């Protein structure tokens, strides 16, 4: 019997007033794989992330976790399952140092006082496993490079040991070297067995990193691709609507990809 995906969406719909933003969305994320979520502006990518992360619960459809239906009505529900999200704005406090940002809202206390030594130890241990690119943990994050801030945001999401990580445009504002560092970091997370949903407009990043691509167009599925075999032109055609491929149902894992 095939292993079920870590996370699966079955017929998910989301409506705001009379406008249906997502219609019958299907998506699967497996352990140790990167799935790229592609689509033009307004395709529904951000709404889909909000549905999975519990910020904007689905109105219809089913969300499955390891093959069983689960409710995700609040961000707390997603975190309890093992879903973490890094948004494009990173949500870092520029005046706080790296340690302060990682433990903001979940500070470690000892005898009623902040345990700065333990928080710094854990931060250093986590970052050393991920990157050597943040040498000083006590500088304000506003003084870090864009790539370093992205690394800090990803590291913060890993404190709770998630199994699925949602990354919203993680390389959008980065230069070449910083982009390479972030992509290497995501590659490490895949090797550690995480399922990663990578929201991106950058086809170079998608072809370099993703195992699969799922395309949204006007709030609907418009194609699923094996990134290793599909051409860049095929995927872009699905994004722009040059080809229409809206599935009525998800095929099996083996046959679809």
Describe the structure.
- The protein has 257 residues and is α/β, with parallel strands linked by helices.
- The chain folds into two domains: 1-82 and 162-257, 3-Layer(aba) Sandwich (Rossmann fold), CATH 3.40.50; 88-161, no CATH class.
- It is 33% helix and 26% strand.
- It has nine helices and twelve strands.
- The protein has helices at 45-52, 75-81, 98-102, 116-130, 146-158, 176-191, 203-209, 232-240, 253-256; strands at 7-16, 19-29, 34-38, 60-65, 68-70, 83-86, 109-110, 113-114, 164-168, 195-199, 212-217, 220-226.
- The strands form three sheets. Strands 6-9-10-3-11-12 form a six-stranded mixed beta sheet, with helices on both faces. A four-stranded antiparallel beta sheet has the order 2-1-4-5, with helices on one face.
- Strand 9, helix 6 (176-191) and strand 10 (195-199) form a beta-alpha-beta unit.
- Helix 5 (146-158) runs parallel beside helix 6.
- The longest helix has 16 residues, at 176-191.
- It is globular and about 55 Å long.
Question: Summarize this, please?
Answer:
This protein is 33% helix and 26% strand.
**Mean pLDDT score, rounded?**
90
Rounded to the nearest angstrom, the radius of gyration is 19 Å
The CATH architecture of the largest domain can be named as 3-Layer(aba) Sandwich
Q: Helix count?
A: 9
Kindly report the spatial arrangement of strands forming the biggest sheet: 6-9-10-3-11-12
Please mark out the parts with pLDDT under 50 across 5 or more consecutive residues, or reply none.
Answer: 246-257
Give the SSE order as H and E letters: EEEHEEHEHEEHHEHEHEEHH
What structural class do you assign from the helix and strand content? alpha/beta
CATH class of the largest domain: Alpha Beta
How would you sum up the global shape? globular
* Integer count of domains: 2
How widely separated are the two ends? 18 Å
CATH homologous superfamily descriptor of the largest domain: P-loop containing nucleotide triphosphate hydrolases
Give a quick account of the main beta sheet: strands, pairing sense, barrel closure. Answer: 6 strands, mixed
């Amino acid at each position: 019997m095939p292993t079920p995906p870590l996370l699966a969406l079955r017929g998910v719909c989301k409506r705001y007033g009379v406008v249906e933003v997502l219609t019958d969305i299907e998506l699967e994320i497996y352990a140790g794989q990167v799935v790229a979520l592609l689509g033009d502006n307004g395709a529904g990518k951000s709404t889909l992330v909000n549905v999975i992360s519990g910020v904007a619960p689905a109105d219809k459809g089913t969300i499955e976790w390891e093959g069983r239906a689960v409710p995700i009505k609040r961000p707390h529900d997603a975190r309890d399952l093992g879903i973490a999200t890094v948004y494009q704005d990173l949500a870092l406090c520029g005046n706080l140092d790296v340690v302060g940002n990682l433990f903001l809202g979940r500070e470690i206390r000892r005898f009623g006082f902040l345990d700065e030594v333990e928080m710094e130890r854990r931060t250093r241990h986590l970052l050393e496993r991920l990157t050597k690119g943040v040498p000083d943990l006590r500088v304000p994050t506003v003084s870090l490079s864009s790539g370093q801030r992205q690394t800090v945001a990803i590291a913060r999401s890993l404190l709770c040991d998630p199994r699925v990580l949602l990354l919203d445009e993680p390389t959008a504002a980065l230069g070449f070297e910083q982009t390479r560092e972030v992509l290497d970091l995501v590659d490490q997370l895949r090797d550690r067995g995480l399922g990663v949903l990578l929201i991106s407009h950058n086809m170079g990043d998608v072809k370099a990193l993703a195992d699969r691509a799922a395309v949204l167009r006007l709030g609907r599925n418009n194609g699923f691709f094996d990134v290793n075999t599909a051409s860049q032109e095929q995927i872009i055609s699905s994004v722009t609507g040059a080809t229409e491929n809206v599935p009525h149902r998800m095929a099996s894992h083996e046959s679809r990809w």
